[in-house]
Design goal:
Elements lengths: L6 E4 L6 E4 L8 H14 L1 E4 L6 H9 L4 E9 L14 H8 L16 E8 L7 E5 H6 L3 H7 L3 E4 L1 H8 L23 E3 L1 E3 L6 E3 L5 E2 L6 H15 L5 E4 L6 E5 L3 E5 L9 E7 L3 H4 L6
Parallel strand pairs: 2-3
Antiparallel strand pairs: 1-2, 3-13, 4-15, 5-13, 5-15, 6-12, 6-14, 7-8, 7-11, 9-10
């Protein structure tokens, strides 16, 4: 594949681009460097019509770094092919919880660098994934607001976010949860603003998992973070990708928040998520260092 054929078309947003004239299975080194440079510049890259296998998806994700986990289904289809739509179904609860804006794995000791996601089955309507630019969100704040954020931290927990939304899964026989992210280690503590290690620019680090801001009581913290999240995810800083079968998408989890959007859960949907591990030198929670 000739690297010169790579075509990058910016989205009608303050971030993101569609990339064509490229086969992600056969990236030579010049083409790979163009892709990575575009990823750093735009934070979200959309590759239509790639139709990657799970192994091919993981191989592409490994070009960015180590994996937090390999391709895993985000779906309402069980292993027997049945559609899961009941409100009390644990997988449905996970899908619904992800409708809140968030960064991936801020509730883990090391925040994810990014993710590669591909679409295998899409419903007839809905199910877009939203993305919001936390660099632009920070830069839109006035000086007083930026000063208020300086030096403040928040805890990040999947127990908190799913519990607050009413979507905690069913407990196992030991009284815990078997789903990913419900660990028994210390609750990660992260700053509310963070310098991106590749761009040197400041980004907000908030989202639905964040709670208990330093120097605030719980009620004040909740109100403060809700307002900050709402302002950060203003439509002017968002893009909603409507999936087509075969799409591959990679985003920078250090700069962008994302969210699921509702769809008819009686229709099947399956997308595959490969999570790119964060660099421990820059993405480790403050209390895990």
């Amino acid at each position: 594949m000739a690297a010169a054929r790579l075509e990058v078309r910016p989205l009608d947003a303050c971030f993101g681009a569609t990339v064509t004239e490229v086969d992600l299975r056969r990236l030579d080194e010049p083409a790979w460097h163009l892709v990575r440079d575009a990823w750093i510049e735009y934070a979200l890259l959309i590759f239509p019509g790639q139709f990657l296998t799970k192994d091919e998806q993981d191989d592409f994700a490994r070009r960015f770094g180590d994996l937090e986990f390999t391709a895993a289904p985000i779906t309402n289809i069980d292993r027997e092919g049945n559609i899961r739509s009941a409100a009390d179904d644990d997988q449905v609860k996970s899908i619904r919880g992800n409708e809140g804006w968030h960064h991936d794995s801020t509730y883990m000791p090391v925040q994810a660098m990014g993710a590669v996601v591909t679409a295998e089955i899409v419903p007839s309507a809905g199910a877009a994934t939203g993305f919001a630019d936390m660099r632009a969100a920070y830069e839109a704040l006035d000086d007083d607001a930026k000063a208020r954020l300086e030096g403040r931290t928040a805890k990040h927990s999947l127990y908190y976010s799913q519990g607050r939304a009413g979507y905690l899964p069913t407990k196992n026989a030991d009284g815990g949860y078997d789903m990913y992210g419900y660990h028994d280690g210390p609750v990660p503590v992260r700053p509310l603003t963070k310098i991106h290690p590749d761009t040197g620019r400041v980004n907000l680090l908030v989202g639905r998992h964040a709670h208990e801001v330093t120097g605030m009581d719980p009620a004040e913290s909740e109100t403060f973070l809700d307002g900050l999240n709402d302002a950060a995810c203003h439509p002017s800083r968002c893009w909603f990708h409507q999936w087509e079968v075969g799409d591959a998408v990679v985003w920078d989890n250090r700069r962008l928040m994302h969210c699921a959007t509702p769809f008819d859960l009686t229709e099947p949907r399956r997308i595959w998520h490969t999570r790119i591990a964060g660099d421990p030198a820059t993405e480790t929670a403050l209390n895990y260092r």
